[in-house]
Amino acid sequence: MIEVRSLIKTFGLKPVLRGVDLRLEAGEFVALLGPNGAGKTTLLRILASLARPSLGEVNIAGHRLPAEAAQVRRLLGVVSHQPLLYGDLTAEENLWFYARLYDLPAAQRRINEILEMVGLDRRRRDRVREYSRGMQQRLTIGRAVLHDPKILLFDEPHTGLDQEASAMLDGVLRQVAGQGRTVLMTSHDLLRAADLASRIDILSGGVIARSLRRGQPEWEDLPTLYRAVAMAEGTRG
Amino acid sequence: MAEAAHAGPRSRGGFLRAVAAVIWKDLAAELRSRELLGAMLVFALLVLLIFNFALELDARTRSTVTAGVLWVTFVFAGTLGLNRSMAVEKDRGCLDGLLLAPVDRSAIYFGKVGANLAFLWIVVAVVLPVYSLLYNTNLFVPGLLGVILLGTIGYIGVGTLLSAMAVQARTRDVLLPILLFPVALPVLIPAVKASTGLLQGLPLADIDTWIRLLVAYDVIFLVVAWWVFDYVVEE
User: Fold this and answer.
1) What is the pTM of this model?
2) Radius of gyration of chain A (CA)
3) Looking at residue A220, what DSSP letter applies?
4) ipTM metric
């Protein structure tokens, strides 16, 4: 579903990604871990067609990026650090706006489904700026799945949430991921990533330094493995 | 749900729907907050008042400076609106939300142009009668509204493109006027000249060249922006 080969991205002379190879099969939930500045967000932005790769191949559901970005965008749902929602519009108006952009048929029915799914049905006519951070993040996920995308890209979706809101968000994430979608999620929270994902990739030094499947022995002691990989890179760099 | 994912390829109707959606979104958000339009109107009225006190004009001189005062007011208020309009998209990451949509990105550009024009035309609709009262000048001259229409289209057309560029920078508030004013001169000069000619009662044949220039620059700016907007907003 997602195939990345020898991906390099530089900002000016500074290389951020130095040859990333990544492959996600359909229906897989992969968590991408890595220290600050490892290039997780950059990688996700390239996959989302928001940034151009400097070198390398990116293929999503048979479409090459950036050449076929328009076809890819219809297949993607993206959640980033920021809500991507308009504070002065209500939840319903925000979804209605995106439904128009995605040219969704039966938009009102789909908006009702989404608001019910993220538990905001009763607050649908409230302005988004009046929502708590947790409610905004749930609506953000609702916006991301509004057009029923096959692939979800989550960039640290738990950022700024308290324990309760994070737990609620986990429920929504499991629900949207459990519908056969392919999910790539970046995170700093090792335990949460291990709980949600079926595979963990560690991005360090601009490459995928380690890939680990659920069930492998190191999975049980992820923090130790993560520290070892990140420290090895720190020593090299 | 599946029907949503497999909606047919986007058509010209889809492009126009996306343009209309962006315009609706900006107008609806502004209707609630009244941040942008309020600031533009207050600023425009202050500029008019300052000119009113600064320039004590006799009737003859007034006819030569009216167009200049009006266009300075429109340009300053318009720049304020352009800055704010794109900053709203950037601050909450909404620009990414727009760019992720499977629409031709020029639809986003034309949507923003449409909304920015609507705001500026509201300012124009308030400024013209207020100016008429303050300066005791009749601005209801045939053709003047047409020139204002053409001038504002060109100014907002290039301004929306440059504000999409400037919004990426930390110094965006300062950067936009520095970028915009020199680039917009080819629109502003014919707009002021044609407006002055109309207010002085010159025959249409005398200002025909300025109007043609205005139309030509409008077309050039809009076509160039349509071509390059995709590259401007991409990292």
Assistant:
1) 0.88
2) 18
3) G
4) 0.88
